[in-house]
Specification:
Blueprint: E1 4-7, E2 11-16, E3 35-40, H1 57-70, E4 76-81, H2 83-94, E5 99-105, H3 114-130, H4 133-143, H5 150-161, H6 165-176, E6 192-197, H7 205-214, E7 218-223, H8 230-233, H9 235-246
Parallel strand pairs: 2-3, 2-4, 4-5, 5-6, 6-7
Antiparallel strand pairs: 1-3
The structure holds D-malate.
Length: 249
């Protein structure tokens, strides 16, 4: 069973978290009004301790489709942060009829380079031997800007620590093997909000600019004072952009 936060009333947004994170990374987005916020912890992350084996990005997308079915949601705006964005592309491929809008946060449409892929498999071996500590510590400095307050860094670390080794290795493998989604972008017919932290070094602004240019109904918002977790570090500004976007969906 997945752990799912389901709060608020209005047009549904399904918020899919990034790696190695959990639904709590969207805790500040609960302040967005007139919206039903559906926030799952993906298998092996946060409080979802479901067994995870080998999963593909399409499998994660199917988990989201099942969640929509279960909760009687026909169509939703789907928001994805980083790996959550990769799942959004799988959803757009598998079940475009379930989407009423897309919010792509600090993500990219391209597949891993060969080098990045190798790095993922090396990380899998490391996690199997030593646990998630080293992967977490190598990612943490890239998540927030150096100016982020220490309490924020601690909270992000805490959210990351809720990840299980099984969840982390499954996600690393799925990310390494994900297909390139570039050819999908011109066919995305729903309104799309592309958000990126100006200081994001994992999925830099150039990625967001390229996606926004290729998706017909896209709007790009670059967020100053944010790195890879724009929605967390600059929640107020992102919430404003999302609330405005929701009036167009
Ligand atoms: C994420 O935040 O989900 C990851 O950084 C994505 C990635 O490693 O490609």
């Amino acid at each position: 069973m997945l752990n799912v936060t389901d709060l608020g009333q209005g047009t549904p947004i399904v918020w899919i978290h990034g790696f190695p994170l959990a639904s709590s990374i969207y805790e500040h987005q609960l302040a967005i009004k007139r919206t039903r916020h559906v926030m799952p912890d993906l298998p092996g992350f946060g409080q979802s301790r479901s067994a995870v084996g080998n999963l593909t990005m399409d499998d994660y997308a199917r988990i989201v489709i099942d969640l929509l079915d279960h909760r009687g949601i026909d169509r939703a705006v789907v928001a994805g942060l980083s790996m959550g964005g990769y799942i959004c592309f799988a959803l757009a491929r598998l079940a475009p009829e379930r989407l009423s809008g897309l919010i792509l946060i600090d993500t990219r449409e391209t597949a891993d380079t060969e080098e990045a892929k190798k790095g993922r498999y090396a990380s899998i071996e490391k996690v199997k031997k030593e646990g998630i500590g080293s992967v977490m510590e190598s990612m943490l400095p890239k998540m927030l800007t150096p100016a982020a307050p220490p309490e924020m860094k601690e909270r992000v670390r805490e959210i990351m620590t809720s990840s299980s080794a099984d969840g982390v290795t499954a996600a690393l493998r799925a990310m390494a093997e994900r297909p390139d989604s570039s050819s999908l972008l011109p066919g995305i017919a729903v309104p799309t909000l592309v958000i990126v932290g100006e200081e994001d070094s994992i999925t830099p602004p150039a990625d967001a600019e390229r996606m926004a240019a290729a998706i017909p109904k896209a709007r790009l918002v670059k967020v100053a004072g944010a790195a890879h977790l724009a929605n967390y570090e600059q929640a107020e500004e992102v919430n404003k952009a999302v609330a405005g976007f929701m009036t167009t969906v």
